[in-house]
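User: what does the whole thing look like in 3D?
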Amino acid sequence: MSVARFWRKIPQRYNLIGTKCEKCGRHFFPPRSFCPDCRRAGRIVDHKFAGTGEIVTFTVIHTANEQFEAYTPYVLAIVKLDEGPRMTAQIICEPKDAKIGMRVKSTFRRIATDGESGIIHYGTKFVPVE
Amino acid sequence: MHAVAAQIHVEHGTLGYVLVYLLAHRLVGVRVEGQTGGIDRLDTFLGKHVEQLLENHAHATRELGAFSGVLRMREGTLEIVDSGQHLSHDTLTGAADREWEGFVGATFPGLYAMIAKDYMHRYPLTRKQLAQVAVKNHFNGARNPIAQYQQEITIETVLKSTMVAEPLRLFDCSPITDGAAAVIVAPLERAREFTDTPIKVLATAQASDSISLHDRRDISTLDATVAAGQRAFRMAKLSHKDIDMVEVHDCFSIAEICAIEDLGFCKKGTAGKITADGDTELGGKIPVNTSGGLKACGHPVGATGIKQVYEIVQQLRNNAGRRQIDGAKIGMTHNVGGTGATAVVHILGRV
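Assistant: Here's the predicted 3D structure for the full assembly of 481 residues, as structure tokens:
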């Protein structure tokens, strides 16, 4: 990913900021600038997600892309945020502890590095809620 | 109404032969698909020739872009075959949402593994039933002389293979294959100029959905497959009992399970059982992936959809040898892009 393209995504990646439609209350992550239900009657505003949610489904990745190989085996999941949207993210836990329905909360972590001298990508991972 | 007048399976390195064949037969329409990526230095030359052909036959199917796919495949797949696991993972991740799936560490098997996990959490699918998909497809592949893998395997082979993304193991995954396929499409009334046994295209339907798996209405139902299947049946004015065999997109074992349900061949949650019961075997109630599917016949990615058509045409022409379905009259193909972002369904019939 190029630097410019990466930087543009910083609000979403670093802070889990999406949008919500004030008319119908639907939340969007990644952010949408238009509500597909209310259309021109909708009113879109930024929304900072609480970062809590639960695991909808997950897997444990054993063979990965080169960037992620050092982290294997790692837990990858689809998390449903409490406000509604779902997102794909890593869960920081022992593979054997991951469960469907498990409560998790977001945390700011390093995601990957583009080689030894490339950009370090940061973003959202989730940890189990005690 | 169009017909598949002839079809050619392209082995690596026989591209020249295919082009000569296509040009020599003064095609009215050509569709060739291949793995994308790589160099297209011959595009200009080819584009000119095909364009001339198309100008000569105004009602041709205009699929010029597809032609360059063959050339790209020739350059592109070589690269992938030589490059091993990392590039395969990376290339395939591009078929998902690179920004919001690939970025956080999702791999293509990982996404299908999450479908499998969701499915197994909600429906009574066992690990052995899932493995049976691969066992059945290898059995069929062993009866297909152009299959990439012509060895039979057992449930143990699958269960003992390397873990890729839980619960999917190596033998749940299709390979990336070096190969290509081509069909020739012509108006039905002219098809006999090119072949004695034209095959009729009874329906062709497509549907799409979100590119990211997490945005789907239901993780383990491919709504695109459901919609494309229903459209195809409506277009052909046929029902499930009319289909003699179907080639589905089994990029992973779980994908075949979802596909036969989403196409409507059985109720949601029962595909594992009907697979274990032998309903999808050669000679079963609805034979699935008689070619060996993506798992055993191979998955040349961009060429896979046409490869599926090739198999159904072979079956309908009674050319399928040891895997022939007796009295095959109507067949179906089902191809998927990404984890369900696109689905394409064709129904083909004997003329």
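In plain terms: The first helix of chain B runs from residue 15 to 24. The beta strands of chain B are 2-10, 30-33, 163-165, 168-169, 180-187, 199-208, 245-247, 330-337, 342-350.
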